[in-house]
Amino acid sequence: MNERRATWALLFFAQLALVVCASVMATLGVFPTTLFRPPFDKVGHLFAYGLLAFTAVRFFGPARARAVIVVLLLVSTLEEGSQLAFDTRTFDVLDLTMNAAGIYLFGGLAAAWQQIAD
């Protein structure tokens, strides 16, 4: 693994950890909701999943960008849908929409940037 890919791996796994921690904290009812009230929570969804997509595409490479985006969309949909099973969570189609927008926008940006840079 080259040095640049190692950096993207670190950034990807750090962002993945942040998204997982936020989901677990929200499920446990300890997520600081005072910071993320509507409409700011939607911006959080956009950037959390967008940065995850950006770092994932940069780590896995532009040849795998489509597969990375599809997997992230699937995982995002499953995570949002799983909220129906918890009293501390609220399923919201707009949250899912913002997740998808972030994944498409930032994932596409990362793929384009990597193709231009290489």
Could you please describe the fold and organization of this structure?
27% of the residues are buried. Helix content is 76%, strand content 0%. Helix 2 runs antiparallel to helix 3. The chain has one domain. The two termini are 16 Å apart. The chain has 4 helices and no strands. The chain is mainly α and 118 residues long. The model has no long low-confidence stretch (mean pLDDT 93). The longest helix has 26 residues.
Quick structural gist:
The chain contains 4 helices and no strands. The chain has helices at 3-28, 40-60, 65-82, 93-117.
Keywords for this structure?
118 residues; elongated; single chain; mainly alpha; 0% strand; 4 helices
List the helices and strands and how they pair.
Blueprint: H1 3-28, H2 40-60, H3 65-82, H4 93-117
Helix pairs in contact: 1-2, 2-3, 2-4, 3-4
What structural category characterises the helix and strand content? mainly alpha
H/E order of the elements? HHHH
- From the spread of the alpha carbons, the general shape counts as elongated
Strand tally is 0
Total helical elements: 4
Percentage of residues in helical conformation? over 70%
Q: Roughly what is the average pLDDT, rounded to an integer?
A: 93
> Which oligomerization state do the chains in this entry correspond to?
single chain
Number of domains: 1
Radius of gyration: 15 Å
Low-confidence sequence ranges: none
Distance between the termini: 16 Å
Largest sheet: none
**Which percent band covers the strand fraction?**
under 5%
